Amino acid sequence: MLQIRNITIRPATFLSPMAGLTDSVFRRLIKRLGGCGLVMTEFTSAEGLTRNSFKSRRMLFYHEEERPVTAQLFGADPERLAEATRMVDDLGFDAIDLNLGCPAKKVVKGCGGSALLRETKLLEEILRTIRAAASIPFTIKIRAGWSETETVALQIGKMAEDIGVEAITLHPRTRVQGFSGKANWGLIAQLKAHLKIPVIGNGDIVTPEDALRMRAETGCDGVMIGRGALSNPWIFRQIFEMENGLPLTQPSISDKHQLIKAYFQLLFEEEIPGALGKMKQFASWFTHAIPFGASLRKSIYESTQESEVMERIEQFFQNALPTADCQPVVD
Ligand SMILES: Cc1cc2nc3c(=O)[nH]c(=O)nc-3n(C[C@H](O)[C@H](O)[C@H](O)COP(=O)(O)O)c2cc1C
After folding, report:
1. Which of 218, 243, 268 is the last residue of a domain?
2. What is the residue with the minimal CA distance to atom 4 of ligand 1?
3. Ligand 1 atom nearest 74 alpha carbon
4. How many angstroms separate the alpha carbon of residue 238 from the centre of ligand 1?
5. Ligand 1, from 13, 15, 16: best to mutate by most atoms within 8 Å of Cβ?
6. What end-to-end distance do the CA atoms of the chain give, in Å?
7. Do residue 158 and residue 264 come from a single domain?
8. Is residue 36 annotated as part of the catalytic site, yes or no?
9. What integer pLDDT is reported at residue 320 of this predicted model?
10. Is there a single domain that holds both residue 221 and residue 270?
11. Which of 14, 293, 297, 330 is the most buried (most CB within 10 A)?
12. Whose CA is nearest to atom 6 of ligand 1?
């Protein structure tokens, strides 16, 4: 369990914000599977939000069942960020998070995301402005720094703590690294050793064992999981089970089928834009390690309508599975 002011995060596991992926539908699915303590919106532009962009506002849509839920913002203009913070506050979010890790060119060009890690003066002003504007808990999510020679996680962490930031997540890769190489968990341990506020470790957790190892090696107060939850959304529950000496959930093919159906159902209910693309993406993650999954993925990718994707999935699970179960061809 982890406490950030009035928010109880139980268990101390977080779903990473992932742009284009962790929308309200995906977050609810994760919450329903159990074991995830806190979810966060995809990063949302303060500029877009305060200029009334429909897309940005839509990103801040959430359901009560997601609570506790954090809104993540990015931007580089203190006043816009303050205004966006007040909007987030008014929308009833439990906390607000500032993205200081995004490596995307589009974002760093405007000095947002990881670019702020090398603009300490501006960052300090931004942190103070958001702190003053937010009545709810304020957290940040950072990378290690811009490059290996500019590792600033500790310096930024201390500054943030002094200003009143209430928790910090570290993905210990540099901006230059992107997603290559390995996350340097040693930096999480270092940050934890020097800060009083909760430190959440992130990066390269793909199995429940990894999560327990990160906690043991770094002493972090919580763990955040991104890509690992895409291919295995049961990972949060498995972490809880492993920590409590319970038998691990081993999702069956039928569980995966039910999950795909539940996801599609929610997408339709919410009338999410780009649903066809999301269905294809989701179905492709969840059919790995299922017998004959490759042929299903191919047929899904050739579908041109949402109903067609649905039909192909149903057909696959109803007809192919009895045979597939007898022939364990895994791909
Ligand atoms: C497709 C994708 C989108 C992402 N979008 C965001 C984002 O909106 N905000 C953010 O703070 N991090 C974002 N990240 C970074 C993740 O939150 C996380 O820090 C990173 O993937 C490392 O964790 P992992 O190894 O568990 O995936 C994104 C990562 C991916 C792969």
Report:
1. 243
2. 18
3. 9
4. 21
5. 16
6. 37
7. no
8. no
9. 55
10. no
11. 14
12. 18
User: Are both 317 and 221 inside the same structural domain?
Assistant: no
Whole-number Å distance between alpha carbons of 255 and 32: 13
Going by alpha carbons, the residue nearest to atom 26 of ligand 1 is 226
Strands 13-15 and 222-225: parallel
CB-based contact 165:197 (threshold 8 Å):
yes
Ligand 1 close to Cβ of residue 294 (< 6 A): no
- Ligand 1 within 6 A of 23 CB? no
Range of the domain at 286: 253-326
- In degrees and rounded to multiples of 5, residue 52 shows phi and psi of 70, 30
Question: Cβ(112) to ligand 1 under 6 A?
Answer: no
* Residue bearing the CA closest to ligand 1, atom 5: 18
270 Cα: distance to centroid of ligand 1 (angstroms): 24
Q: Identify whether residues 166 and 22 lie together within a single domain.
A: yes
For residues 269 and 272, what is the distance between their CA atoms, to the nearest angstrom? 8
Identify the CA nearest to 100 among candidates 166, 39, 135, 144. 144
Are residues 213 and 66 part of one domain?
yes
Q: Report pTM.
A: 0.94
Please enumerate in sequence order all residues whose Cβ is within 8 A of that of 61, keeping only pairs 6 or more positions apart, or say none. 24
- Model pLDDT for residues 128-172, shown as the tens digit of each residue: 999 999 999 999 999 999 999 999 999 999 999 999 999 999 999
Cα distance between residue 89 and residue 81, in whole Å: 12
> Poorest-confidence range of 71-75, 137-141, 193-197, 292-296?
292-296
Final residue in a domain of this structure, among 243, 272, 288: 243
Asked if residue 260 and residue 239 are part of one domain, the reply reads no
